[in-house]
Amino acid sequence: MDRNPLLPLSIDTFSGIENSMINISFQSCTLTSQSLIAFTRLKNLERLKLQSNLLTKILPENLFSSMLKINCY
User: Fold this and answer.
1) Is the overall model pTM greater than 0.70, yes or no?
2) Which InterPro entries match (predicted)?
């Protein structure tokens, strides 16, 4: 999904495919901190790349606690 200016993501964005998402890249997509809620239901997510977005804070603090690796710079 890199370099795609996306509409705001919601908690239902990945509805129906929550268990199959393991590795996702959303680099340079103009994502904001409010969009991070979309990733909370992805229980098998191990890697998430969020470089070059408009993130200012990550809440809740434990949002990514189950992931093995996260690239967010």
Assistant:
1) yes
2) LRR_dom_sf (IPR032675)
